[in-house]
């Protein structure tokens, strides 16, 4: 049985109405000079934007690691929003950091993000957010309570509305998988930033501070890859339209020449359903999927028999599901929406931060994303 070839998803042509223009203007501010990519600048139209995005996502990941090291020693650093979703200083800190840095470099490009400052203003933790942002910002003296709150609101839900013309904008999920962030070291979470230009996702950067490449190699294949340079070091995954998807370990970002450490990502080349490696959300059992009527799911690759498929035992409630597929660790990720409302959200603009970066990373790695409404 051949795998179905699904059509690629073009990101919705979101329209934003802003008090300023949204075309990309020349940028003369520099990012880290050692940053380089394994493809020529002439081939990548948005090379400078990608440089800036990788730089700020790397720093945002380190901000998360810093906050996480304090998270479990101080209960006040774990908060509950009105919808009962755990949210931490890191969520607000990452959004403020990315907003500040990208607004400095590309002031004409608006930001669409998840958080706004209303909840933070009701707590006594604004100062703590300022501290973690200042520690990672380019210009620490410019990081104040006022600038941080304004930076958060620049990407907040009430900061934009829809207009008649196609827009250029950044899409940010400060921490996708916040529940995993507050659980412990094994649960995966992702910092995600993408650029959308007139309805097309043109670049994406994902950072997963606790990605363990050795774990995924062993649990998927049962053997250890030789020459593995990513073990227990986190991962940065980047994608640019027409230039492929690439990864490198987070711990190398400041220590080695980056053009020599990037590894190209390719989706799994499997074309036969029974040989594919599947990945599903923790919240959904294999029995809830239509394929369960034909195949049993096993998590041990050595015990796969006729009528069985391999289910990768990984936490994939966050954007790491796209990392799993883009890096070839999983052949297919399945998500079954329980209501039509959920599917409309996924295929529309509302939760853009949940999918934009993942879509381009999978597509540029040779895969496809299919959403059926």
TrEMBL record:
Q: Which cofactor does it need?
A: Mg(2+)
Q: Does the keyword Lipoprotein apply?
A: no
**InterPro entries of this UniProt entry?**
Inositol_monoP_metal-BS, Inositol_monoP_superfamily, Inositol_monophosphatase-like
Tell me any Pfam family this protein matches: Inositol_P
State the protein's name.
Answer: PAP-specific phosphatase, mitochondrial
Origin superkingdom: Eukaryota
Q: Which organism is it from?
A: Solanum tuberosum (Potato)
Keyword list (alphabetical) reads: Hydrolase, Magnesium, Metal-binding
């Amino acid at each position: 049985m051949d795998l179905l070839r699904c059509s690629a998803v073009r990101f919705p042509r979101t329209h934003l109405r802003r008090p300023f223009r949204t075309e990309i203007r020349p940028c003369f501010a520099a990012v880290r000079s050692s940053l380089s990519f394994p493809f020529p600048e002439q081939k990548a139209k948005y090379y400078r934007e990608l440089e800036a995005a990788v730089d700020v996502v790397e720093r945002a990941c380190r901000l998360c690691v810093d906050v996480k090291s304090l998270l479990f020693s101080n209960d006040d650093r774990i908060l509950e929003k009105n919808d009962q979703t755990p949210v931490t200083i890191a969520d607000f800190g990452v959004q403020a950091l990315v907003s500040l840095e990208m607004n400095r470099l590309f002031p004409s490009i608006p930001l669409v993000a998840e958080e706004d400052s209303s909840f933070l203003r009701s707590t006594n933790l604004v100062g703590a957010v300022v501290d973690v942002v200042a520690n990672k910002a380019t210009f620490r003296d410019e990081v104040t309570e006022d600038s941080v709150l304004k930076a958060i609101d620049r990407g907040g839900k009430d900061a934009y509305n829809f207009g008649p013309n196609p827009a250029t904008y950044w899409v940010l999920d400060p921490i996708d998988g916040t529940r995993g962030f507050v659980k412990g070291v094994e649960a995966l979470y992702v910092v995600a930033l993408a650029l959308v230009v007139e309805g097309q996702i043109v670049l994406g950067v994902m950072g997963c501070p606790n990605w363990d490449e050795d774990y995924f190699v062993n649990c998927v294949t049962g053997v250890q890859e030789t020459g593995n340079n990513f073990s227990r070091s986190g991962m940065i995954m980047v994608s640019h339209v027409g230039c492929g998807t690439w990864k490198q370990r987070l711990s190398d970002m400041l220590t080695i020449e980056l053009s020599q450490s990037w590894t190209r990502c390719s989706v799994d080349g499997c074309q036969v359903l029974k040989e594919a490696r599947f990945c599903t959300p923790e919240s959904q059992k294999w029995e809830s999927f239509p394929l369960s009527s034909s195949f049993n799911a096993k998590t041990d690759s050595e015990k796969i028999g006729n009528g069985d498929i391999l289910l990768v035992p990984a936490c994939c409630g966050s954007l790491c599901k796209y990392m799993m597929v883009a890096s070839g660790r999983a052949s297919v990720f399945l998500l079954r929406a329980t209501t039509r409302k959920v599917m409309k959200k996924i295929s529309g603009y509302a939760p853009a931060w949940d999918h934009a970066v993942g879509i381009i990373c999978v597509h540029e790695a040779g895969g496809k994303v299919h959403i059926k409404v």
